[in-house]
Protein 1
Amino acid sequence: MPNACKLAAGNWKMNGLRADLLEARALARAFPSPGCGILLCPPATLIAGMAEALRGSALMVGGQDCHARESGAHTGDISARMLADAGARHVILGHSERRADHGESSAEVAAKAHAAHGAGLVAIICLGETEAERDAGRTLDVVLGQLQDSLPQGAGAANTVIAYEPVWAIGTGRTPTRDQIAEVHDALRDAVPDKAMSLLYGGSVKPGNAAEIFAIANVDGALVGGASLKASDFGAIITALDAA
Ligand code: PGA
């Protein structure tokens, strides 16, 4: 079975001004030839500037969402082609904050991922259960259901990455146990159509817990929020992934 690529992806969410491109430059200097993929997904306003700042480095830039259509009357939205034109190689889709704040369904996520693929972008599709769903014993049902409904036709390791992010672990400092992560990642590996697809864990990944998380089978990297904003913290997580 081909090995999945290791990826450390940073999700800056609605954080970052032009001055913060310094953090991206520092990271690029620290990892001239990393043993894993390194991706930063800043807010849309910084994509072109970050791509420019990272030109010639090993680091990649991504978006945090895209519209399912290529262009048209969709005020405030951004198409996958626009992201690619600005220098993005990836786009995060179906993050739980978008599913919650913008009512995004898995069917919409699949349509967006289809558009991302059409524009040559790698779609990072996010899945995860709420605390109530976990307490009700529904974690695998929810996550595997989201996977099935969010993956577009033609999704494979070359154009799609899956991120398992329990909603209750995002930005809370709480992380699942080793066994809880392993259970979901093992089930995802069984369920994905292409066994070489990278499976990321996300939710309160920090320098202090990264090595332990990356030691879990079927965890190929992380989608990191808060700890990706500072080059020193994200750098420590990348170092842990490199060593895993
Ligand atoms: P966090 O966010 O690392 O700040 O918990 C992760 C995410 O939402 O992708």
Note: Residues 7-243 form a domain with the TIM Barrel fold (CATH 3.20.20.70).
Protein 2
Amino acid sequence: MIPFPTGNTVKITLVGAGAIGSLWAGALARQGHAIHLWRRQTDTAFTLQWQGLDAPDTDTFTFCCNQPERLTSSDVILITVKAFQVLESIKSIAPWLRTATPVIVMHNGMGTENEVLQLLPDNPVLYATTSQAALRVDRQSVRHTGVGPTFLGAVNRAGEQWQSLAGVLNTALAPCQWHEDIHAPQWQKLAVNCAINPLTAILQCRNGELAAPDFTAELTGICREVAAVMTAAGYPTRSETLLQRTLTVIQATAANYSSMQQDVANQRPTEIDAITGFLIEQAHHFQLATPANFALWQQIKHLEQNYG
Ligand code: KPL
């Protein structure tokens, strides 16, 4: 295992500074790590107001951006763009990326892994899934709005040596744990996202509103289909377990808007293809029917196609 001794400054290039990226950028900078941002905007600096959970004060950080030499000298790359931007963002960093540098990909949903591994055949590649919640208050401010676990795991041989990165992430935003099979927590998160994200985006409501008894039948139907697909994919579970976990997340994040609700509210492309779309694709592979999830996928696609 390659160690990152506690207290050492780690040079991190963070690709994408949306809500989750900004949350991690600030949290890692607070630990003294050297954060460099790689963004689509061409500015060479970005100032971020970072507000911790229940903290009245904000921290202000100015990050250096888009410096190829900082990218090359990074100890680790953390990609926090949306699933549909992952490949394009990897292509944008590839010319300056050393093959020894570990790359962590963190996004909602699944399905990017094979293409990422093709683009990065020699790098250690890891995936992370997080249930931390953040809200972009405005373009330059982010607030940490909820604590949840983060899991990190390797998706290729070279990535397996980098368990110490879970410690780096854990000191910045606990809890973060290494997982020997990252697909297991990815599926668990995907199940919750299949249940909460499309419904809250269609209804334009907070997560907590799904706790109303009116939604029990629909949530049960979604979870039943997800449980069948997960079981066929080698991650056996019961629909009752998924429903219970979904209701727990709904309670814990009752006041929050889901990421898909925020995307639709702001007329941005959503992660529906990486969440419900991935589920439907897997269902097709295992010849399983997922009518409830398919109906939600269609409704979100329709919303996206009709943005003004
Ligand atoms: O991950 C989420 C998201 O908004 O994408 C949930 C779990 C639904 C919390 O809001």
Note: The longest strand covers residues 58-65.
Protein 3
Amino acid sequence: MDKELQRTINELHIYEKKILKALKELGYEATPEKISKFQDMDIKAVMSAAGSLESKNLIEVHKVTDEVISLSQTGKKYAKEGLPERKILLLLEREESVPMGQIKEKAQLENSEVKIAIGWLLKKKWASIEKGVVKITPEGERAVNEEYKDEALLDKLLEKQKLLLFNPPQIIKEGFDILKKRKGLIHIKKEPKYTLKLTNKGRKLLEMGFDITEEATQLTHEQLKTGSWKSLKYRGYDIKAEHPDFYPGKKHPLRRIIKEIRKTFLEMGFTESRGTILESAFWNFDCLFQPQDHAAREMQDTFYIKNPKNVQLPGTDLVAKVADAHETGGGTGSEGWGYIWNIDVAKQAVLRTHTTCVSARFLAENSPPLKMFSVGRVFRRETITYKHLPEFHQVEGIVASEDINFRNLLGILKEFYHKLGFEVRFRPAYFPYTYLSTECEIYLPEKESWVELGGAGMFRPEVLEPLGVETPVAAFGLGIERLALKQLEINDIRMLYKSDIGWLRKLPITKGISLDE
Ligand code: FA5
């Protein structure tokens, strides 16, 4: 216990010590005002150090709310010049009786004062009115040389400025009762009053004793240079003391996850590519062997753009080959979709519905072997749910080389998810542009269901042949928001776009990102 108290002493600020000493001298209990006077300290410094002493259980701070009265402007005026009924009384002392009509002028009153003054004159029984004439009474004559109770309080208020109503009462009760009734002479305000009291712990600490010497809180260049810092006295710090919560700015978790994904693919030897959000239906659908009557192309799923309505297509050679693949299968050995391909449909401008169009463009411009990934926003007309948004992010990738196969593709995806820290399962799937195809899923215990994370497969010859690619190409497209479900331990992807400041603040910076960032 003594050891602990000694540590508390070492950590006391000089102001805290001064307050404790003052309390000892002032009988273990005092108001902050008294202490401030006693130690010649600013009252604010007393209050803030008292708060700190209270949190250390060395003193108790008692608060009572009292009412305080002070004079208004009019109150001050009457305190200095005298109340209006006093002015009439003095007039009556000189003239004994005065007709009502002459009171205002002779007593030098304002219009607004006459009625009130006469009222109080009668209430105080200083005068009577008979047939329109105001006459002084014997009580009035006596009052000439005596202060009435309300006047005495006005005087006291003028001198002291403030008086307490209750603790302890500093007012003249009858005077206050009158002034309270008169409009606009005094202000009544609630004011807290504090008393600081030493606790038993505080007393023990005082018994152990300590000296009040100035302590160094900041070192100067001079002190360091001359070595005088060695002889300074330092205050101990409680590094476990409570502190206010602090929320420094940080990147949005989705941005952190995207950064982490990019880092992972770069580490796996992929190069990064970027596409554009506005795309032609040609690159988004046709080049990927999606027939022009495919359900995904319908207005319900795809956002078509009014302006620009169309996007320019690449060189005619590629367009013709894509048309051929759709109509007859071209040189791929397939029969194609067997319909008349329409170039105008392919020219339509769309907001890309997936990032696979970036892979198609990349393959048209680069020769295998290659490993490419791309991250970006995609758009679909979707009903919003815990796992569906109309605008979301995908990460897309392709690996093209002579010896790549479906098994390698599963291995790449497994490794990618493993690096991010979780396991996925694969199940067979269908995409018009891949064969074999798969979808990977994660289990969400809160939803008690498996959620699709991404699609993947080997690009079909109908995709590769028009692009002039002769090696197999493994391709995948993964949803990023759904990945965040697991990374951030949330069960609704809408959370990512809610700007819920409370959630964002509390989310550890390490969530969704590796520690070496
Ligand atoms: C595709 O977009 C394919 N292009 C993926 C692909 C690429 C397959 C290459 C084969 C080869 P899908 O429509 O299933 O597939 O979307 C892929 C992932 O995006 C989904 O698994 C899911 O994680 C995410 N996703 C899809 N729709 C939404 C949505 N509305 N909101 C949030 N995430 C979504």
Note: The pocket of adenosine-5'-[phenylalaninyl-phosphate] is lined by residues 354, 356, 380, 382, 388-389, 392, 394, 431, 434, 452-457, 475-479, 481-482 (CB under 6 Å).
